[in-house]
Amino acid sequence: MITPPIPPDEEARLQALNQLNLLNSDPDPALDRLTRLAARVFGVENALISLVAADFQFFKSCYGFTGKRTARDVSFCGHTIIVDDLLVLEDAREDPRFHDNPSVIGPPHIRFYAGKALKTLSGYRIGSLCVFDSQPRKLDQAGIDQLIDVAMLVQKELHAREFALRASLSQARASEEIIHQEGLFLSTFEQAAVGVAHLSLDGDWLRVNARFANLLGHSVASLMAVPLNELLEPESAAHMIARRERLINGGECERTEEQVQHREGHKVWLELTYSLFRGETGQPWFLVLIAQDISARKAAEAELQALQASLQAEIAARTQQLTSANVQLARALGELRVIQDQTLIKKRRLSDTLDTALEAFVGATQEGTIVEWNQQATETFGWTRDEAMGNNFADLIIMPEHRDAVRAAVRAYVEFADLPQLFERGEMHARHKDGHPIEVEKTVSPIWDNGRYLFNIFLHDISARKHAQAELRENQEQLQTIMDNVPVLIGYVEANLRCRYMNATYEEWFGRDPQLLIDQPIPDVASPEEWALIEGLVRNALSGNKSAADIHLDTGNHPRDVRLSMIPDLAADGHVRGCFTLGVDLSDRKRLEETLRREAMEDPLTGLPNRRAILQLIQRACERQERHPQPLAVFFLDLDGFKAVNDQFGHDAGDEVLTTFGRRLQTCVRKTDSVARLAGDEFTILLEDLQNPKTDATRVAQKIVQAMQQPFDLGEHQITLSTSIGIALHLPGEPVNAEALLSVADAAMYEIKQSTKNGYRFAGPPEASKAGS
Ligand SMILES: Nc1nc2c(ncn2[C@@H]2O[C@H](COP(=O)(O)OP(=O)(O)OP(=O)(O)O)[C@@H](O)[C@H]2O)c(=O)[nH]1
């Protein structure tokens, strides 16, 4: 006996057989009729339809023979399925393959055997139709043809089952594809980062995504309750009608910027893109309206949630419809055609929506292969759709240094369902075709698609925005540098008295970090003394008035005289947002002024008031007499023989004498009186509040003359000098002229100098004056 050989396509053959679900199945009346027919046609005892499995053969239909299965290695049919034609044995005992086969040497004692292989629609030989008998027989050509005919009938029955099975499988796959496409469309429609709406040709809402409604402060339902033209300015509504007409008449998609009514009453600036969706025959179906908030982007997840739920219910309902459509193949095929048309429309709607989107859209498989690429992606990255499709998205649009991270993120998601940070809405660097980096805002949405993930990636080019932000930052830094380097204290106080800014001058003045002030209430960070100094100014400025004052600040290092100015920061509506603070250090200027003032009024050698100062003092004293009518006296003094001191002892010795003379004069008068040096060795004394002018003046003059008797100490030498004194009295009511009064005293001094020197003389008639020594 020879065991049946294994066919070369065994594995595929067994798979085809298993898919038919016929092994070990119940008898089939149609097949039983055919085996009965075969036995009768050939007048044999037995007819079988056998299916050859991996290690047994199963008798799907038997006529005569009563077994259900036998081992494959003793089977006749195992041989039948490997021959191209029929296997015909007139007497099995004479064939080396079968002469000792258990079915030959034992029951059913097969002698005659004729079998024809049965093939599946794909050509796999899964079994055979055979007839056999316990008596040897011959089979002529007519018999062979008949056996082939009956085998073809059996094969046709099997094909009918296979066809039904395939149709059922194909229907199931088509249903899955429709559900998938529906899900893809809805997911994209709802996840679009822009507002999307479909409008009837009359401009009525058909479908609005939550993003669109959210832009206008509406829910989808409430927005759809308001006609679009009522949301627009009257002029814009008229334009919209004209725009619709143009699109219907074949015009290109149009983009416009409109002020649209927000539900809360204000207007929102939106960029609106109108396009038209046409059916397969070109007839206009509906309008697609894309809206983008061009003032600010706002999330709308909450609204999306509700709409998604209703759309999912719609998917479930449709799935139910499709399931019931599987009852009859013909009907199912018809419905399939309809649904395929709908799928096509939705695909085109999706594709149109994506192509008019203002964001780049890239669809990629979990291996990274690009399967979707819209027009905006071409504009953003430079690759045409044809160039991009089929390529790896990381290689194409991710900067080389980020590719490993992106691939790891995708792997983490696919293998562990771990949602990496990379998928969150955020910013990243993408890569242009020419290699330069593009800053983009990304949204990544994984979708479960038929046993694997697809990634929907929305990318929005934000390079221009980033560039503007960088420029702004640079300008702010430049401004900050200037502010920190001007020798002026600059700050900003908010209306709630909190400090928002203080420049580096603050640290220079107070030795404290200005950052410690930021956001702190000024009354808390200033000392009580400082706050008392500036509170009035700050509050005045915060009530809208400019204010300035010179204040004396104890700034730690050293006290400063500061000119503090407060300028209110007024908003466009007139309310006060805060105030700018400018502090200019006047200390140096004040010191200089003081020096100049002193130098203008003081004699540098003796430190006594100079000529200008004593003239002012005399003038004011005379003016005071109007309120306090007390007489005063002016002395004009000149040292006698002073020139000789210089000549004999030198100029320094002369200076010493002058200084000592000044001090000596001060000891002769009251603290309220004034001693001044006019020039050279000329001095002046102003005596005020005299009771008896002449007597009082005489007493002072004599005191001076006496004081001059004391020698001047010049180191190794001592000298004695005298002075000549002219005295002018001024009584209340007399004309006020300091220069004239001084001249009068000078003239009196001159007279005594010309006569005796070393004495005093009153101005006026000779008898009123007296020389004293
Ligand atoms: N050491 C010194 N000498 C001065 C200063 N200013 C003026 N002199 C000198 O003071 C002298 C004053 O001159 P006079 O008053 O004419 O000389 P005198 O010797 O006092 O003459 P009589 O007044 O007539 O007694 C001059 O020699 C000046 O050069 C000064 O600031 N220091």
TrEMBL record:
- InterPro entries assigned: Biofilm_reg_signaling, GAF, GAF-like_dom_sf, GGDEF_dom, Nucleotide_cyclase, PAC, PAS, PAS-assoc_C
Cite the GO molecular-function annotations of the record.
catalytic activity
Task: State the CDD domains in the record.
Answer: GGDEF, PAS
Q: Which residues form the PAS domain?
A: 181-251, 346-417, 475-545
PAC domain segment(s)? 254-306, 424-474
Query: Which branch of life, at top level?
Result: Bacteria
SMART domains recorded for this chain?
Answer: GAF (SM00065), GGDEF (SM00267), PAC (SM00086), PAS (SM00091)
**Stretches assigned to the GGDEF domain:** 630-765
Instruction: Report the protein name in the record.
Output: Diguanylate cyclase (GGDEF)-like protein/PAS domain S-box-containing protein
What does UniProt list as this organism's lineage?
Bacteria, Pseudomonadati, Pseudomonadota, Betaproteobacteria, Neisseriales
